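Dear support,

Our group has been running a series of protein-ligand predictions, and this particular one with biotin is the one our PI (initials K.S.) wants archived with full inputs and outputs. We had some confusion internally about which version of the output was final, so please treat the block below as the authoritative record. The input we submitted was:
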Amino acid sequence: MSGGLAGLTALKLGKPDFYLDTIDSTNGWLKLHGTELPDGALCWTGNQTRGRGRLGREWNAEKGQALAMSLLFKPSYETELLPLICGMAVSQALSGMTGEEFLIKWPNDIICGGLKICGILCENSLLEQDSFAVAGIGVNLNQTADDFSKLGLSNAGSVGMTAGVRLDIGDVASEIVNRLEPLWLTLREEGFSPLLERYSDLCINIGKDVCVLSPDGRVLHKGRAVGISPDGRLMVDDGSGIISVSSGEVSIRGLLGYA
Ligand code: BTN
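Confirmed final output from the archive:
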């Protein structure tokens, strides 16, 4: 079960790591074992059968074609900002490994060629004796356009489809953890301010027109995304003022399509 990720250079994050051959949800597994595991523990699989997505959606990754991984953060900390730095780490890792641009759709979807390649779900477990956060990252690696169209996922894509590169799931897991560790240390020690400009540079929405949607898909606001606040909210100018929207409450779309 011990994964032994060869490419791991991070000193704390990703240790220990557990490779799970098949699992319903890596977030579920880590939440179940979180109390007995140390800060930084990682579990990962290429076969996730009942994964959890944002806003109650499903996220599966089967036949080794996609990576599902979850990291444990103890004690629980800054769950609004944790997804943002996870998005930065995935963007840096995939761009570095492929030479293509993988950018962030606020708060943490990873987009390449207008398609969603990766989704991130951070969950908190607040128990009386223990509190921890689980950051779950799902990266589509080798699925085809046909695979997604059979599932009715018209906005989804994989690294293979968009960058033409076949990556190994263990290499991607290691690289994401390696990129995440320095971001996590900065967030924990200095807060999000030193990372805000770097996040904004990777975020495709800034300066673009967006729709702010409720979880059931109603349009709540339309306007121009003008920036990110120090607490990770998206600032939208709707013409009559600046609204700041929280990732727990809404999702966004470009006015001309998904991204
Ligand atoms: C989204 O809906 O965009 C978020 C998807 C998050 C999926 C990942 S895969 C690894 C981890 N385990 C889960 O059950 N979900 C997350």
